[in-house]
């Protein structure tokens, strides 16, 4: 069975709690990504998504200089490199999220996105099942 370590992105750009929302948005643009993990003392403490910026910063009329900590999603759902792709797809479906940070001993070692399942051509329809469940609306989503 395929493990997350086989499909995850290992080189992940991060920001710290010292960064502001504008700095994270610039990094998102430069890296062409929709999520930036937030680390503090090498430990994953949150993620900031493009959706977080829209809903918690812009829509609430907070300035771009707002602290990352005020805007980021701190309710983290993570997996380890040893998690099977089937387990990860199930977690993504249950939590209705499209990206999962991969951590080992609290340290970020990668990230897996729903697209990684499709790109790797997993044959048991894991991505299809996860996407169909993630696409169902839920008002209590942690992050996307």
TrEMBL record:
<protein>
    <submittedName>
        <fullName>CBS domain-containing protein</fullName>
    </submittedName>
</protein>
<keyword id="KW-0129">CBS domain</keyword>
<feature type="domain" description="CBS">
    <location>
        <begin position="8"/>
        <end position="65"/>
    </location>
</feature>
<dbReference type="InterPro" id="IPR000644">
    <property type="entry name" value="CBS_dom"/>
</dbReference>
<dbReference type="InterPro" id="IPR051257">
    <property type="entry name" value="Diverse_CBS-Domain"/>
</dbReference>
<feature type="domain" description="CBS">
    <location>
        <begin position="72"/>
        <end position="129"/>
    </location>
</feature>
<dbReference type="InterPro" id="IPR046342">
    <property type="entry name" value="CBS_dom_sf"/>
</dbReference>
<dbReference type="Pfam" id="PF00571">
    <property type="entry name" value="CBS"/>
</dbReference>
